[in-house]
Design brief:
The structure is a homodimer. With about 190 residues, chain A is an all-alpha fold. Chain A has 11 helices and no strands. Chain A binds a DNA duplex (30 and 30 nucleotides) through helix 1, helix 2 and helix 3.
Chain lengths: ~190, ~190
DNA sequence: ACGCAAACGGAATCTCGATTCCGTATAGTA
DNA sequence: TACTATACGGAATCGAGATTCCGTTTGCGT
């Protein structure tokens, strides 16, 4: 029972370049318009044919997952940094603001958290996001800085809500800075005391 | 230039019955699974053929609009009642809880507020929802019960966020009552003082 | 009971985006 | 330079859901 010896040879130079271009095009287009953008359009923007997109990602879901991993890696970094803040609440608050910014700048991210549960779960766990969230919350509770009833599972829910509401038709009624106020309400409400 | 004399004759009895059945089927299915349910399925559940659905609603969007009107009428009623509460803040808080419940029970509603801007705007305005929201907020501000920076356009944004986050994959992580905590945070954060 | 406009059912069609296929091009190697 | 495994482009195919069409049925006024 030796580990399956998957033949990992380096990608040919052009292939590596194209893969990167596809990812960047997908990030840009999906970030702006959501996961609904078509594979053809992504290919065009990347300057390759659709066939090439499918050579690198077996299907759309795989492409979305690759992007999700990227985002969760970033979120994990934000969480890790927050854990290093000497002031638990300040760390938490900063984390929430930065994470919200990531969501607001990338429309597809919230959509993944809404509809692609598997991709999200996998990406989040890969970077230890759930545990980091839990540690951050627990640390705040220990310091008496956050309400006792806050559940670490609330964080992704709230981020998904803020992110989606922002790019929604309803969100446009609240104006450009709507999401900032929204987030302030939530933060103020989570704070202890 | 007489007003166009649209021939409004009463629907034949069977037609009226079928129209109601289609609406009810759509309400039930879309409420549970979102606007993505197919027209064929709605027809089946209503016990009619697809052709009949299209006789009553020229296209899917029209059917969605009809449902949206229904919901906004309900929301308008909740707002009106809230305005009659002698305690401005209590009225506001109650309105938020009831409205959130309507959203949580009807998955399609938040989706309309997210993606079908036109249908939403039309339905909301038809029942005076924007003005009611504004009056409610202003009344709270006058009583010093709500933060000054709260904008009446924040309400639909927040409801859309809570509603969508609730039925999202991320929302499931927060458990059954996740949305209630979410709403509490927001309310607490909007309150003055 | 009769006649016909109003309704019906549901197969056929249309649309559009995802995915596959295969002939051609080329990086890397001897 | 010649060779071949890789990679490429994009037309063709699939599939799912929305919408149309038309032959049949039915409510209801006479």
């Amino acid at each position: 029972m030796s580990p399956t010896p998957v033949d990992i040879r380096p990608l040919r130079a052009d292939a590596a370049r194209n893969r990167a271009r596809v990812l960047e095009a997908a990030r840009e287009l999906m970030g702006a318009r959501g996961v609904e953008v078509g594979m053809e359009e992504i290919a065009r923007q990347a300057g390759v044919g659709v066939g090439t997109v499918y050579r690198h990602f077996p299907n759309k879901e795989a492409l979305i997952s690759a992007l999700a991993e990227d985002r969760f890696a970033r979120i994990a970094a934000v969480l890790t940094e927050a854990l290093e803040d000497p002031d638990p609440w300040h760390g938490f608050e900063t984390m929430m603001r930065r994470t919200a910014e990531i969501h607001v700048a990338d429309r597809a991210l919230s959509e993944v958290m809404r509809n692609h549960g598997d991709a999200m779960q996998a990406a989040a766990e890969k970077y230890g996001v759930p545990e980091l969230n839990e540690r951050l919350i627990e640390r705040c509770k220990a310091a008496g800085a956050i309400r006792e009833e806050v559940h670490h599972g609330d964080i992704p829910m709230i981020m998904c809500g803020v992110g989606i509401a922002t790019c929604s038709a309803a969100g446009r009624l609240a104006g450009e800075d709507g999401w900032k106020r929204y987030l302030e309400y939530v933060l103020e409400g989570m704070r202890a005391g």
